[in-house]
Amino acid sequence: MLPRFEIARRLRPVDLVRPGPLAPAPAAAVTTPLRGTGSLGLRLGDLEVRGAYDGSTVSLDVGGRELRSRRHARAADPTALGLTLTGHHLTVWAAEEPGWVARARYDLREDLDVHDEALLASLAVDAPDEATVGAFGQLGLRDVRLVTTTDGSPLRTEGLLWFTATSAGPGFFDTAHTSVWSVDPSSLDLAHRADLWFRRPDVPGVYGDHATHLVRDGAQWLVATSTWGDFEEPRTRADRRAQSSLRVTLAETTAGLLTGTHVLDTRELPLPTDGLDSIATWDPHLVHHQGRWLVGFVSAPKFFSFHPALAGGPALDRLQLLGADRSRRATEGTTLLPLEGTIRVLASDGRDGRRGQRAAYPVFDLSMAQTGVVDAPYPTNIPWPTVARLDDGSWLMLTFNGRRSGGALLGYGTHGDLVVMRST
User: Fold this and answer.
1) d(C-alpha 183, C-alpha 193), whole Å
2) CA neighbours closer than 13 Å in the CB half-sphere of residue 412
3) Do residues 413 and 168 lie in contact, with contact meaning Cβ atoms separated by under 8 Å?
4) Which of 179, 250, 272, 313 could bond 167 through an S-S bridge, CB–CB 3.0 to 4.6 Å?
């Protein structure tokens, strides 16, 4: 049985720049202090872009075209200027009270392919000496999963727990990527340790795929992730059919994924969806239990209606569907938890679910029959339930909420706080 949880702390690490070399990925950032006016530039292939503050408003110049938002350009006493590339979005920022505010944005899809590795190798920055340059950091953290060993136990090193998260960018899912973090379970101190990027098996390029589970399997890592890195919300039937490519991939590597920046080659993780009328799968979670692999995931018969599912088999490429709760329509974050000698399946019911299936963390057995719920507060958005039993017998739960960051220009996708709960 799981205990009751209460919220212990909300944490929000916001960093436009992770200082260091530019990443071999569509995620670059540069910031500089402002003294009156200022500007910053990026070059990607033949395209030159520049963000500027003229003492009153912020603008973005893309290949000689000046762009200025009618509603959002005016900055309030900014102390610094920022320019970021996240996926195919360019964004210019002003550091105001209480933080970074996006003042101009441009979509590069009609100009170039930001996933092209040769193009990314040409990425360069034009900035003052006092500027801070590096990869893009994050506006918030969501899709939190503990890093585990194959039996589902949380990975521990020197008293620290580790987790992967989706580092939110300034916009929809295509501006985000996967990051790796450590947390001290006593002090709740966080540290950003690594960033993961992905090559897909069917198309060239580097993608910020996310909603990732990182598993230590002997001398190697298994990295299961969801192909959200170029996802756009479908608006027509044709779009919905095209987005059926949203799926799960798997990387296997002996690289040191707990530190640094990595681009990983992946293969398909074939998830069985027999009888589910599924057009997309996401949110993988892997456990090896009693001689077989179990994989929890989400299946969607349409956008956006989705439910939890479970597969199992002797190998990750020989899985069969064990069960799914098709009665649910807004449930994701499928998570496998070793508990009392067996595996329980946890998930998260969003507020758009059916009556009796809203704003809760359901618990299922291995046939996907519901056996209970986790007694814990339910933040906004669809917070995932990832829990760990600590050495003193208490429990820690890491999840997230839907609080946005970065200003009104950006819209959905800039969430959330890391919400930490403890057992009572």
Assistant:
1) 10
2) 5
3) yes
4) 179
What is the pLDDT, as a whole number, of residue 245? Answer: 73
Peptide bond into 163 cis (omega under 30): no
Q: What domains can be seen in the chain, in order of their start residue?
A: 5-12+138-423 (2.115.10.20), 16-137 (2.60.120)
- What's the residue count for the chain? 424
Burial status of residue 30 (CB atoms within 10 A of its CB: 0-12, 13-18, 19 or more): buried
- State pLDDT tens for residues 194-235: 999 999 999 999 999 999 999 999 999 999 999 999 987 656
Torsion of CA 415, 116, 109, 142, to 10 degrees: -10
Asked if 340 and 363 count as a contact pair (C-beta separation under 8 A), the reply is no
- The Cα–Cα gap between 274 and 276 comes to 6
Give me 321's structure tokens.
Answer: 């569907």
User: Residue 363 and residue 337: Cα distance in Å, rounded?
Assistant: 10
The amino acid that residue 159 corresponds to is G
Give the span between the Cα atoms of 275 and 27, in whole angstroms.
Answer: 39
